[in-house]
């Protein structure tokens, strides 16, 4: 017998981050940083919420310009 779905879990995993900063001469430069380990975090969270009978939806590297999810 299958358990009923309890709800929905929405995981947003951002590995890449974009920012700008000014250098010593005041010139604006793009700075890119990466968050390592997100794959393992997503895997663990996904497993946990599936065991708790949630429907899991994962989105990767979203930006603020994303329309409807």
Please describe the structure with a list of short key phrases separated by commas or semicolons:
two-stranded parallel ribbon; alpha+beta; 69 residues; 1 helix; single chain; elongated; two-stranded antiparallel sheet
What spatial order of strands do you see in the largest sheet? 1-4
**Structural classification:** alpha+beta
Distance between the termini: 32 Å
Mean pLDDT: 84
State the helicity in percent bands: 10-25%
- Please provide the count of β strands: 4
Strand content: 35-45%
For the CA atoms, what is the radius of gyration?
Answer: 18 Å
Order of helices and strands: EEEHE
Count, helices: 1
Shape: elongated
Largest sheet: 2 strands, parallel
How many domains comprise the coordinates? Answer: 1
* Unreliable stretches covering 5 or more consecutive residues: none
Kindly summarize this structure in a few lines.
With 69 residues, this protein is of the alpha+beta class. Helix content is 20%, strand content 41%.
Explain this structure to me?
By secondary structure, the protein is an alpha+beta fold. It has one domain (7-60). It is 20% helix and 41% strand. It is built from one helix and four strands, in the order E-E-E-H-E. It has one helix at residues 38-51, and strands at residues 7-13, 16-22, 28-34, 54-60. The strands form two sheets. The chain has a two-stranded parallel ribbon with strand order 1-4. Strands 2-3 form a two-stranded antiparallel ribbon. A hairpin with a 5-residue loop joins strand 2 (16-22) and strand 3 (28-34). It is elongated.
């Amino acid at each position: 017998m299958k358990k009923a779905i309890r709800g929905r879990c929405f995981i947003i995993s951002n590995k890449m981050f974009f920012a700008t900063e000014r250098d010593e001469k005041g010139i604006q430069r793009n700075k890119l940083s990466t968050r390592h380990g997100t794959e393992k975090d997503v895997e663990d969270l996904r497993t946990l919420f599936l065991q708790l009978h949630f429907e899991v939806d994962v989105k990767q590297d979203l930006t603020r310009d994303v329309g409807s999810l």
